[in-house]
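Q: I'm a student working through a structural biology exercise. My instructor gave each of us a protein and asked us to get a predicted structure, then write a short paragraph describing it. Mine is Biogenesis of lysosome-related organelles complex 1 subunit 1. I'm not confident about reading structure output yet, so if you can add a plain explanation after the tokens, that would really help. Here is the sequence I was given:
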Amino acid sequence: MLSSMVKEHQVKQTTRKELQESKRKEAVAAASDLTQALVDHLNVGVAQAYLNQKRLDAEAKQLHSSAINFSKQTHQWLTLVETFSSALKELGDVENWAKTIEGDVRTITIALDSVYKDSQESQTQ
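A: Happy to help. First, here is the predicted structure for Biogenesis of lysosome-related organelles complex 1 subunit 1. I'll explain a few features afterward.
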């Protein structure tokens, strides 16, 4: 009787160990599946963040390039406006010079006319 009880106990223990081992394997598999699911879920977010960062970098480079081109164009416009302003100043100077010369020529003409008239009057007398 004692030996049958021992055998029965050993059989139950073996059955329990097998059941416990199968449950342990199931738990390990479930934990592994859970870990994999969590990693996959996080990887999706990381991948999306990486793609967004890559897109932002490309747009930042394009913006930088556009800003440099805009700066160059602005510099060209400023140079053109300065040249135009200088040309206008020169035209103003030329116009002033021409008016001065015209005034001098009129003064000389009036003086010559006056001298000519005086000489004509003195010859007729």
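A: Here are two points you could use in your paragraph. The chain is about 100% helix and 0% strand. Residues 27 and 80 are 79 Å apart (CA to CA). It's a good idea to check both against the output above yourself.
Q: Great, thank you!
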